[in-house]
Amino acid sequence: MKKLFQQYQEMISYLFFGAATTLVNMGVFFICTNLFAIDYKISNAIGWFLSVLFAFFTNKYFVFSSKHENIGGFLKEMLLFYWYRVLSFVIDMGMMIVMIDYLHISDFWAKLITQVVVIVLNYFFSKFFIFKKKV
Question: pTM value?
Answer without folding.
Answer: 0.77
